[in-house]
Automatic annotation (TrEMBL):
SUPFAM superfamilies: DNA breaking-rejoining enzymes. CDD domains: INT_Rci_Hp1_C (cd00796). It comes from the Bacteria. Residues 180-356 form the Tyr recombinase domain. It comes from Pseudomonas mandelii JR-1. One of its GO terms (biological process) is DNA recombination. The keyword Metal-binding does not apply. This is Chorismate mutase family protein. Keywords: DNA integration, DNA recombination. One of its GO terms (molecular function) is DNA binding. The keyword DNA repair does not apply. InterPro entries: DNA_brk_join_enz, Integrase-like_cat_sf, Integrase_catalytic, Tyrosine_recombinase_XerCD.
Length: 379
């Protein structure tokens, strides 16, 4: 049963403090108090709260200490990094979000209104003045955390908060999808990069063989994270194929292992690597990206990402008149809509047929390969 006590304030008004104390087996298991200006309101509050606390599990939920969004994000980064390294963009975005005012909110305080407020703040000068595309990315990465916080960790997260917020923000034009990139490296830009990294190798023994990595990424169409995960045991010599583990896929990021055909050039580069580690390219994916990113501005190359090599590789295969099933056997795409995003044609034929750098990376025998022409690997 709740109690109400009154006291005079300095301004001579009366304050009514309503208190609820619940005992079990002679011990206080829960207590709560609120102060009101009117006694009737205090009585109504006691009645409402006692009804709520009488529901099964209500006292346990009320006694539960909330966890902040910051702690939630930290747990996500720690636990999921062990399963599979997160992309640098997602990692950086979540790290930035947890250090904002949103990170200080408790799980129960996170609502669609707060998420909309966060989006508006991000687009303001104080929040960085970002564009709708960036807001969309922020909420997408945060949504990944919220989607596991309740079922996996039992945190009190409103399951509709994110979807409701995104619906409102879309109507306001405050979120948008990432723009499709059509950036492809030119042969001149690739010449600069290959020359730069070959010269670095002659000056000092580089830890990462960037020339082979760049060429392999281009001819295999593989992402940098996939390349550094490939093991010697993942090769199928008969089919000239590689098992790409945990291939990126919107609906299945873990356990999505796909067999992909390797064109002759990619197979030759792979076979030229020394068998000193279980991984064929035993490098850190982030270090590979950092090395590539540092080199581009030094060489006067603007707005080129390592991932653009995948665009180049896929587009090259179409320019060589490969059909969709054959190209997808290399890229690993499951449908034309996804594959289309990586296709930006410049002409016909193989621009790399007499590429001088390939002969510097592998021998003529390795370069010939041995898979039957037009072979398609099922996936």
């Amino acid at each position: 049963m709740g109690t109400i006590t009154s006291r005079k304030r300095k301004d001579n008004s009366t304050a009514y403090t309503a208190q609820i104390r619940i005992n079990r087996d002679g011990k206080t298991v829960y207590q709560e108090s609120q102060t009101f200006d009117r006694k009737q309101v205090a009585q109504a509050w006691i009645k409402r709260r006692e009804t709520e606390l009488a529901e099964p599990g209500a006292i346990e939920r009320a006694n539960r200490k909330g966890v902040t969004i910051k702690k939630m994000i930290e747990q996500y980064l720690e636990e999921y990094e062990k399963i599979r390294p997160l992309g640098k963009t997602k990692n950086a975005t979540l790290t930035a979000i947890k250090d904002t005012w949103l990170g200080e909110l408790d799980d129960t305080a996170l609502s669609s209104q707060k998420l909309v407020e966060f989006a508006q703040w991000r687009m303001s000068k104080e929040g960085g003045g970002v564009q709708a595309q960036t807001v969309g990315n922020d909420l997408s990465h945060l949504g990944a955390v919220l989607s596991v916080a309740r079922p996996a960790w039992g945190y009190e997260v409103d399951p509709l908060a994110m979807s409701d917020a995104r619906r409102v923000l879309r109507k306001l034009g405050m979120v948008s999808k990432s723009k499709e990139r059509n950036r492809r490296p030119t042969l001149d830009e690739l010449d600069k990069l290959m020359k730069h990294f070959f010269e670095m190798q002659t000056r000092r023994k580089a830890q990462i063989d960037m020339p082979k990595l760049i060429a392999f990424a281009l001819f295999s169409t593989r992402r940098q994270e996939e390349i550094t995960r490939i093991r010697w045991e993942d090769l199928d010599e008969t089919r000239q194929a590689v098992l790409v583990r945990d291939m990126k896929n919107p609906g299945q990021k873990i356990g999505n292992d796909v067999w992909c055909h390797l064109p002759n050039e990619a197979w030759a580069i792979l076979q030229s690597m020394p068998k000193t580690e279980k991984e064929i390219f035993p490098y850190n994916a982030r270090s590979v990206s950092a090395s590539f990113t540092r080199a581009c501005p030094m060489l006067g190359i603007e707005d080129l990402h390592f991932h653009d090599l995948r665009h180049e590789g896929v587009s090259r295969l179409f320019e060589m008149d490969w059909d969709i099933p054959r190209v997808s056997s290399v890229s690993g795409h499951r449908d034309w809509n996804s594959l289309r995003r990586y296709t930006h044609l410049r002409g016909r034929g193989d621009a790399y047929k007499k590429w001088e750098w390939l002969s510097k990376l592998v021998s003529p025998v390795e370069r010939s390969g041995h898979a039957p022409k037009g072979a398609v690997i099922a996936h």
